[in-house]
Amino acid sequence: MPTAIIADDERLMRDQLRMRLGQTWPELEIIGEAKNGDEAIELAAQLKPDFTFLDIRMPGKTGMEAAQAIGDTSHIVFVTAYDAYAVEAFERGAIDYVLKPPEQERLQVTVDRLKVRLNKPATDMNSSVTAMLSQLAEKIVAKPAYLQWIQASIGQDLRMIPVDEILFFRSDEKYTCVQTSKYEALIRKPVRDLAEELDPALFWQIHRATLVNVNAIEGVTRDIRGRHLVLIKGKPDKLEVSRSFLHLFKQM
User: Are 78 and 67 in contact (CB under 8 A)?
Assistant: First the structure.
């Protein structure tokens, strides 16, 4: 029976990947979990799994550093958020990857490739692949680790929502509404915290209680009271812009 360990600093992400792998590859036995790169190195040495799923960004040693330390003891599979550069690098290199959050269709592609590799030795990374990892590590370390998805509640269910699918966030006193084109979800994190954790090039704060995805903005209008309102593509919502954020729309 093939074996694997999962290393990710978010428990929910580990649970989701474990569940998806169970659906896609029931024969794969998850024999251990790690919360950071240091634990992953230790587990890989101790348990000697066939595969090691490594989150790229983790406390302590990153997934890149852990991969280089694990070397040829286990086949490496990187778990990455929606990072075009990383995906391009993995497609060109002899390395497998899983996107966050794990989707069944893409995961099946990875699993099919891993099954082919199962009976082959996890040979040490060659110089070209090692160089690629080093370049990728530099870019990832230099890039702020903005949120790539949001964990939100819809009734009794918990959803993993990629941030680029979110149209806007709007808070009241207790909850923050997460609005996508298809549904509305709730989180407890206030807008002031989200504003620090989301990419400011993608999400603009237009009010103390509102963040909007710039790609979702259809335009800006004024009501009879002179207030500036942001129009959202495909939605009836009109989001008020407070005076302190009007400079974002000065060219309009």
Answer: yes
pLDDT in tens, 141-157: 555 568 888 988 888 78
Distance CA 156, CA 147 (A): 23
How many Å apart are CA 11 and CA 28, to the nearest integer?
A: 19
Strand residue runs (E) in the chain = 3-7, 29-34, 51-55, 75-80, 96-99, 149-154, 157-162, 166-171, 176-180, 184-187, 203-207, 210-213, 217-222, 228-232, 238-241
Q: How far is CA 245 from the centre of its chain?
A: 28
Q: Which helix (H) or strand (E) holds 113?
A: helix 104-117
Listing DSSP states for 40-77 in one string gives HHHHHHHH--SEEEEESS-SSS-HHHHHHHHTTSSEEE
Tens-digit pLDDT profile for residues 192-251? 889 988 988 899 999 999 999 999 999 999 998 889 999 999 999 999 999 888 888 875
Cα gap 100→63, rounded to integer Å: 14
The residue to which tokens 């949120």 are assigned: 147
Report pTM.
0.59
Antiparallel, parallel or unpaired: β 51-55 and 238-241: unpaired
